[in-house]
Each structure stands twice: as structure tokens, then as C-alpha cells.
Amino acid sequence: MPENKRNTSSSLIEMAGDIVSAYVSNNSIPPSELAKLICCVHDAVTEITGGASTNAPAEIDGKATPAQIRDSITPDALISFIDGNPYRSLKRHLTAHGLDPRSYRERYGLPSDYPMVAQGYSEERSQIAKAISLGIPRPLPGHRRTSTSGRKTGRNGVSSR
Predict the structure, then answer these.
(1) CA–CA separation, 96 vs 109, rounded Å?
(2) C-alpha distances in Å from residue 125, one per residue of 43, 73, 106
(3) What confidence score (pLDDT) does residue 16 get?
(4) For residue 112, which phi and psi values (nearest 5 degrees)?
(5) Between vectors from CA 128 to CA 124 and to CA 131, what angle results, nearest 5°?
(6) Phi, psi of 94 (to 5 degrees)
(7) Mean per-residue pLDDT for 62-81?
(8) Which of 12, 36, 117, 140 has its CA 20 to 30 Å from the CA of residue 75?
(9) Bridge partners (DSSP) listed for residue 89
């Protein structure tokens, strides 16, 4: 390993150690979480200084396998093939990465019926819409209803003949 890279790597480790040390001296954390904290701080310092994170999820290159596609669909979230994070709706996430649903499906070899919204989230939104009566046609104020014969009806629903 070149001397410059070794110094950079050791300085990042030293910097991460200083940050964790300062944090732990002012906050109590369980000992079992200490290793995770050190790893997260080191990854953050590495990313900030322009290096690649050691635990960064790799973007899937090429087409997703059928098993990956099945595993990416859960009732509460869809797992993104771009960054591996769960999302209730992929549309905003895809837009942030310069994609639309069609190009995302093509890029990862997903079927045309691959969902863009998690099933649980869709059902939740549907229940909210039904609760506030969205999608139910209402008569316009001042207009009379028409009977099935096409005649105008009065206030009590009886035709005026």
C-alpha cells in the first residue's frame, strides 16, 4: 500500500476514533452498539472526505434475478434496486435519480406490472379516500335529478307528471 494511502486511511481511522470518543464521553450507549457506531462514523468520514464507503450498498448492475424481484416486493415497502433502501412509493425516488417507472423497469429487467407503490400504502390511501368520499359522484347544487325514464324529478324523487 502506498505511504500516502496508508496515512490517509490511518488519519480517517484516527478521526473516526476521535469523533466516537467525544460522542461517547457525552452520551451513554450500550457496549453492544459501540462497534456499529464506530463503523457508521468511519463510513461517514470516509464519504465526506471523498472516499468510497465500506458498507455502501452496491447498485445492481444489469438485470435483477426473479428471486431479487420477489424479495424486493413486501407488503409495506418496495426495496429499490438503485440503493437497496425500502420505499412506500418509488416515484419520487426514481425522479431523484433521473428515471421514470418505465426506464427503471427496463434498466433492471422488471416485468411491466412491477408495482411502483407498496400494497399496504396503496390500501391505506384508498381507505382514506373512501372515508372522505373521494370518487363518489355528487349532484351539482341547483340541478334536479333525472329519473330512469329521463324525466326530471321533484324534491321527493317523484316525477312531476
Answers:
(1) 20
(2) 37, 18, 27
(3) 85
(4) -65, -20
(5) 140
(6) -65, -40
(7) 90
(8) 36
(9) 117
Look at residues 19, 22, 107 and name the one whose alpha carbon lies nearest to residue 62. 107
Per-residue DSSP letters for the chain?
--HHHHHHHHHHHHHHHHHHHHHHHHS---GGGHHHHHHHHHHHHHHHTTPPPTTPPPPPPSPPPHHHHHHHB-SS-EE-TTT--EESBSHHHHHHTT--HHHHHHHHT--TT--SB-HHHHHHHHHHHHHTTTT---PPTTPPPB-TTS-BB-TTS-B--
Burial class (CB in 10 A: 0-12, 13-18, 19+), 78: buried
pLDDT band at 106 (very low <50, low <70, confident <90, very high): very high
3-state secondary structure 133-161: CCCCCCCCCCCCCECCCCCEECCCCCECC
Query: Which residues contact residue 12 at a Cβ distance below 8 angstroms, ignoring those fewer than 6 apart?
Result: 42, 45, 46, 49, 51
Percent of residues, the chain, with pLDDT higher than 90: 39
Which residue carries 424479495 as its cell? Answer: 71
For the segment 124-148, the average pLDDT, to the nearest whole number, is 80
- pLDDT at residue 1, as a whole number: 44
